[in-house]
Write a sequence for this structure.
């Protein structure tokens, strides 16, 4: 029997320096090219590595987003995923992490029959790291976050993963089905295959809306149903220019530095 | 008329760019400096399908088109023209003629491994006394029972020494002139086949360019490519498409130089101002950018024409002539904007200026392209 992996991915703006509209307080997305979120690329790569090893593996990528998120799914297919599903509906717009995980959990339940779910740790445009874990909660399956190493048991009934923490790591064995969130240390994502791009463009990517997913736009997904609301985003004011100390010798400069630090009561 | 690229080509461009930036560019300086064939890069190119972009999947290709291929060479050559040349020679000078003229058996035996990247291809037409005048072939092929015996030598053969499969032109009937030339598929391991001197070049120094020597080289009869006497047609048709490759490589070199220069002039300061603030710099960049965009349109048009199966020989000649001259001109002017640093090997533009020159020469000099273009006007 085949092994089925679902990968949760997000299309994000290609920048680590996201600009914020000073008036609307929202992210400026115009003119910024979109990419597959970095950690999600690691999630997909790990799934594809399993597929390389066990050719009976099927990898399905799921995402929620506007219609153009399909482009990112095409890239995932070109990298080697077998199928992709896009959850897209105006009623899903404005969803926070709780509402987003409701939608994605519904997508995954509708697909069904999965053995493993990989998600990226977090998206570079929101940085919440909440959607993956929430999906696991809603599907009532175990989860391990911050996965930096991964081993699949020969019987494929359990996985052993290394979970990176700030001050160390844990090795955790968990039974499948489970959800894992990937960090960049997990692997080096592959490129798209050239032929994969042509195949992916011809492949049908189903688009599911709230009706297909049996979701209630008033209570489960979308802006209204979202319990959290970003009421203000801001860019921290840039720091002023530093002071450049100069002098005839290193000792001279060091003396000036000490004086300066003393004056500010640092030392 | 629509000048936008199809979506799959935009996606591919993204893939090509990140591949070139991460896998090809870091090796470019070393490849040039050590005159070393970039084996590691070639392995990765094979893995992602660069060795069979335009060919059908049933033969191990990627099922793509010439536009996708031209764009691949463009992006690779922005980073390293040596690498672009290796792919171009393999793809359009060896795999393409087997695909176009080969029998099903020849395709299964030679094309499939070439496209899968299991073997590397090369093409031998040029001889010491048959350069632009390709009709002056002196290599002979004589049929003896179930095989041909080839004698002669070829020079300036790209990928020679690393290639497994060679397309070799030889005279089967001297009395018939160009109609006496035939094409053969020759394996590097055939008896009597050997590699001669490796050339020391001005540019694309990592690409292997050698002499090929055939001394009583035994080639099985079934390795005749196309009909006997049709070799010149095979060669000319192959070069029609090959020019798209060289034009794309040239375009890439020019664009790569411009990218390097745009970055540099915004960093370098003289007279208390960034170089980019001087009008001379701005006008130079504007001029070069326009030239390269014009070259790109000619290149893409020729690739598109080939994809649409409309006559493209004149288009590819114009693309090759214009793009290669643009590359040389742009590279030289970029070096000038870099000043003294542009003359130093630590900076990419130095290598790119040397690499650019060959695009005006190989696979038909600019002068040969002019002959083709003027012939299309009907003038004699």
């Amino acid at each position: 029997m085949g092994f089925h992996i679902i990968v949760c991915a997000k299309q994000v703006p290609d920048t680590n320096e996201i600009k914020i509209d000073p008036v609307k307080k929202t992210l400026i997305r115009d003119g910024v090219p979109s990419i597959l979120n970095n950690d999600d690329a690691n999630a997909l790569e790990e799934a594809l590595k399993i597929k390389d090893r066990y050719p009976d593996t099927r990898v399905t990528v799921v995402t929620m987003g506007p219609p153009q998120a399909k482009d990112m799914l095409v890239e995932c297919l070109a990298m080697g995923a077998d199928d992709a599903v896009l959850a897209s509906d105006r009623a899903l717009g404005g969803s926070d992490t709780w509402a987003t995980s409701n939608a994605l959990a519904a997508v995954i339940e509708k697909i069904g029959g999965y053995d493993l779910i990989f998600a990226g740790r977090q998206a570079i445009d929101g940085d919440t790291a909440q959607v993956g874990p929430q999906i696991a909660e809603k599907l009532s399956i175990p989860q391990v976050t911050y996965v930096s190493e991964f081993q699949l048991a020969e019987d494929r009934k359990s996985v052993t993963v290394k979970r990176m923490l700030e001050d160390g790591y844990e090795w955790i064995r968990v039974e499948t089905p489970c959800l894992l969130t990937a960090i960049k240390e997990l692997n080096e994502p592959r490129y798209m295959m050239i032929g994969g791009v042509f195949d992916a463009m011809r492949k049908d990517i189903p688009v599911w809306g709230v009706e297909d997913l049996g979701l209630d736009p008033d209570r489960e997904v979308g802006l209204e149903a979202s319990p959290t609301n970003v009421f203000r985003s801001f860019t921290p004011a840039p720091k002023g220019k530093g002071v450049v100390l100069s002098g005839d010798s290193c000792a001279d400069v060091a003396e000036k530095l000490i004086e300066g630090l003393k004056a500010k009561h640092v030392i | 008329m629509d000048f936008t690229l199809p979506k799959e080509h935009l996606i591919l461009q993204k893939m090509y760019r990140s591949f070139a930036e991460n896998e090809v560019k870091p090796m470019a300086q070393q490849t040039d400096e050590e005159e070393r064939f970039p084996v590691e890069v070639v392995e990765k190119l094979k893995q992602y399908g660069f060795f069979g972009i335009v060919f059908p999947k049933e033969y191990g290709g990627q099922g793509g088109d010439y536009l996708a291929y031209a764009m691949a060479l463009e992006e690779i050559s922005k980073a390293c023209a040596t690498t672009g040349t290796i792919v171009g020679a393999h793809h359009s000078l060896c795999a393409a003629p087997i695909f176009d003229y080969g029998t099903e058996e020849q395709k299964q035996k030679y094309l499939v491994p070439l496209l899968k990247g299991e073997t590397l291809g090369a093409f031998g037409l040029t001889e010491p006394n048959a350069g632009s005048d390709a009709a002056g072939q002196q290599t002979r092929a004589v049929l003896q029972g179930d095989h041909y015996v080839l004698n002669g030598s070829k020079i300036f053969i790209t990928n020679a020494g690393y290639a497994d499969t060679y397309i070799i032109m030889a005279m089967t009937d001297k009395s018939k002139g160009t109609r006496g030339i035939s094409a053969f598929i020759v394996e590097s391991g055939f008896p009597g086949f050997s590699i001669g001197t490796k050339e020391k070049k001005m540019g694309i120094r990592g690409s292997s360019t050698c002499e090929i020597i055939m001394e009583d080289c035994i080639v099985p009869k079934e390795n005749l490519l196309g009909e006997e006497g049709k070799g010149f047609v095979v060669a000319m048709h192959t070069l029609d498409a090959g020019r798209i490759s060289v034009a794309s490589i040239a375009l890439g070199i020019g664009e790569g130089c411009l990218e390097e220069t745009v970055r540099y002039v915004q960093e370098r300061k003289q007279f208390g101002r960034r170089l980019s603030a001087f009008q001379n710099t701005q006008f130079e960049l504007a001029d070069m950018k326009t030239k390269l965009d014009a070259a790109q349109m000619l290149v893409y048009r020729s690739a598109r024409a080939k994809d649409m199966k409309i006559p493209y020989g004149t288009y590819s000649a114009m693309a090759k002539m214009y793009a290669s001259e643009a590359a040389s001109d742009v590279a030289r002017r970029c070096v000038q904007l870099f000043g003294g640093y542009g003359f130093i090997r630590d900076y990419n533009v130095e290598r790119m200026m040397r690499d650019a020159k060959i695009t005006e020469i190989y696979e038909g000099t600019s002068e040969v392209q002019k002959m083709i273009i003027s012939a299309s006007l009907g003038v004699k």
In short: The mean pLDDT of chain A is 91.
